[in-house]
Amino acid sequence: RSSWLLLAPLLTPPVPVITTPPCSLCPEGAHRFQWIRNLVPEFGISSSHVKVLSSPAEFYELLKVQIKTAKQRVVMASLYLGTGLLEQELVDCLEETLEKSLQAKGSSNLRVSILLDYTRGSRGRKNSRTMLVPLLQRFPKQVRVSLFHTPNLRGLLRLLIPERFNETIGLQHIKVYLFDDNVILSGANLSDLYFTNRQDRYVLLQDSPEIADFFTELVDAIGDVSLQLQRDDTVQMMEGMVHPYQGDKMAYCEIANRRVMEVINSARTRQELLHAKTFHSSQEGSSLLSQQDSQASGGLRPEPDTWIYPLIQMKPFGIQIDEMVTETLLTEAERDARIYLTTGYFNLTQAYMDLILGTRAEYHILLASPEVNGFFGAKGVAGAIPSAYVYIEHQFYSEVCCLHQQERVQLQEYSRAGWTFHAKGLWLYLAGSDLPCLTLIGSPNFGYRSVHRDLEAQVAIVTENKALQQQLHREQEQLYLCSGVVSSATFEQPNRYVKLWVKLVTPLIKNFF
Questions:
Q1: DSSP element (H, E) containing 484
Q2: Exactly one of 49, 149, 175, 394 is catalytic; which is it?
Q3: Superfamily of domain 34-41+304-510
Q4: Which letter does DSSP use for residue 218 in this model?
């Protein structure tokens, strides 16, 4: 039975490959990454508005503080909400804030929108849905809970694949937490492990209304094509919306593509107009217009020295922006540039592996040792997943050695007693620089799932500010300090033994985890 369950995902129809033309690099401008704004909106902010967090406890406390002080909106997108005491405390904070908002004004201006994955959020008798139903019952006009269901899980496949295994087909994997005009980007889910001893990455963008508006609109767009949780714990689609697994798949994906791309393109147009207006007024030597705009939004803003680019990847809907930008960054990385890339699940796509092995930059890749893998010690077939990752890692390391690239491409394994590892993203150090000028942070793991199956979002943060560059550098150093360099001896250790059946099955199922 176990072997059949592992092979069950292979019944899913293949995802169509969509080719896109390479984007043209723009050599002009304040920094060399302005070409990204050809694809997505560019948000210029002051580096003083960016704070890099380092620990799960800090992340959890910030979530609670931000919920308690929110006045207009709370928007949270995650894979799931856990069912423990810490998660209940978050729900209690939401309830308390909604209650205060009602009492203060009689009719609340506060809106709460939560986006989760349907299959993961419905797992078990006590689940994300049962945690949130009381909020819907108590505040039906203020709270919206949307549950995204992948259009690729349908028909006979949906009937055959049991709970947990159905999550391999595709998920809502975006992690964004925003409160009024403050936005937290992370790879962490809303679960007690991510609040205590599961290491991830977190960045807070403070007082950033345009970025908050963008992610609010993005979550709304995905929410509109998702199942809506009702007060009796049932779900239904919005009126007139094509159903994700009962309706026509192509029609559903086209609608979803249109909704998401409307958000991206309208934000891009707004930011281009803002940029042109600012540039025009500064060219004329008059900042009166921009001062009036700034005063209308609550005071003068400092000149931006940091730029935020939201990168969206939703291959089921034909949206591949994050993939295009990531591949271009890896392709364009120059000789003597350094890229620190980290993933909790080392399972790079072939395209990313080819670029790492075939380009000139120096790579330091941080991944989870078997003991800090999130599946370590799991029951049943899932308990073999860390071994599958060891096998994939060994294959990649062997290829590095075969190409004599050990000095240029280095693997490092995160190891920390009592902790698990879930950090993802990259830091780019230009040639001759001791500090990173760009980081990617968000939900993608750089693997097949992130590129082809799941809904993902991260941001590219580009900065010229030394203090913020130092923050990012310290974050990178702190993570890599808990690691050891991988060598041939690593795979001779007893805990790296991979059973034959795992070696045989891994190539068949590696695109599903």
A1: strand 483-485
A2: 175
A3: Endonuclease Chain A (3.30.870.10)
A4: H
